[in-house]
């Protein structure tokens, strides 16, 4: 089997679509109660068994009359008719309208015998002799005849109709309480790997454990496509258990999805199960991501093996599998699954394979969509929310040019571009600030990278901290000061920067894109000038200077866990985690707005909050408004 695992004969994406589409995952139709029929698809035609309405009824308040008795009546020459009685909605009439008489009637009431029209109350006047009619009506005026809405025997709804509240209303009017619908394909979901833990259970990060992302992500995608997801326990790397679960899922489901089974041993298990009970139809697709995709059958069930990285698994599912699930469930392709935009920046791509490039969306000042690559890598689960979809890049494409028109296939029809796109420094006060904006997206790339993306015109705002905040010419809409320094273990005995350099302490730094890192390096330069040595010598004396993290709390978390004695951070973080703090100064944090998008509503709202930050800084040590 080793030749198969080498993916020697990769199928084209077109072949993969055909193979997946050929899988039989159609479920049997079923009958559901009307209360559970919303969003299902009718399996067969529904005809009306009754007239709707089932009786002639008044369509407005007024008087039921013989139309002939009103002929010639007008404002100048009304006719006066006697009142024989009243008819109310929901009651069987107990009055007959003889010629020369009328019956007072309510909207929706049954027309009494003898009457063939209704005169609206506004065209009548009560008198001592009866009621004065000031208009003429023809037979049928202001009356809905029995079956006028839909008549018994008529075709009400056809097969394939997706049931929305409108259709539920019609079915209710017909008295239908059980609805024949297309079955939803049962889709079994298996995630493999010893490192996986289901959310809600304790996580042992020291042992390399991670929460199971794919099972829940794929279950949501299956449900959105119209399938019924069934999550099975993950098998870890117990290959006997994996085989048992594959058999169980195949016996119970129309389609089995696995993700993460990319090791040689795991693939051996999948091959063995497929060869014993089914057929392998495809192994490997010439597309990035998704090269190791498997397609086949296990008994009467279809099987698709997806990549292990969450973004790759979701991308391949949406591209190749979701259309088959929608088709089996009778769902039409979502109308808003693809949007068009232009590339915000140039993106190079040197590989010959077709690429499904994760991409984010942002609206420019005119409301047009800009598309930018999301390049965290398939293994980053935050790419699931940082990316809105993917761009299908044909093989042989060297680059996508800035301004080039592209189509983005959305990960979900519900995806909408963020109202505000920001990039740059991460900061606890910034998190509170973003909470004041509806549907923002913020990428904490660090001050340096945020400024680079800002200069390329991608984000609406960039947040810049430290020295970089003072040397950038842009539209500044506000900011704050934050106290920074060393977050320390109370037992460490670090009192100043000199102690860190001279002592035997373990240190955790921030990455070079962070504004904190630049301020720290400047502080080292100043200490070096005092001592008459270069920064390199001081760096060599710090155990862990090269150990960097990307988030503002991460060094402090290392200290809290006992893995370090000191970390670069903020007073606000030290106070939050009840750790010691050695202040090394304050630094500005500035919010820079793209000049072309200063008038966007979200940017304007942010600027208003920045103008009065007092309430947001309450309880945050070391944070001061301008």
Essential attributes:
Molybdopterin biosynthesis moeA protein, domain 3; Molybdopterin biosynthesis moea protein, domain 2; 626 residues; alpha/beta; nine-stranded mixed beta sheet; disordered N terminus; Molybdenum Cofactor Biosythetic Enzyme, Chain A; six-stranded mixed beta sheet; 5 domains; extended
What would you say this structure looks like, in words?
There is one protein chain. With 626 residues, the chain is α/β, with parallel strands linked by helices. It contains 17 helices and 37 strands. Helix 12 crosses helix 13. The longest helix has 20 residues, at 310-329. It folds into five domains: 13-26 and 186-329, Molybdenum Cofactor Biosythetic Enzyme, Chain A (3-Layer(aba) Sandwich); 30-52 and 149-181, Molybdopterin biosynthesis moea protein, domain 2; 57-144, Beta Complex (Molybdopterin biosynthesis moeA protein, domain 3), CATH 2.170.190; 338-417, Beta Barrel (Beta-clip), CATH 2.40.340; 440-625, Periplasmic binding protein-like II (D-Maltodextrin-Binding Protein, domain 2), CATH 3.40.190.10. The protein is 25% helix and 28% strand. This is Molybdopterin biosynthesis protein MoeA/LysR substrate binding-domain-containing protein. InterPro entries: MoaB/Mog-like_dom_sf, MoaB/Mog_dom, MoCF_biosynth_CS, MoeA-like, MoeA_C_domain_IV, MoeA_C_domain_IV_sf, MoeA_linker/N, MoeA_linker/N_sf.
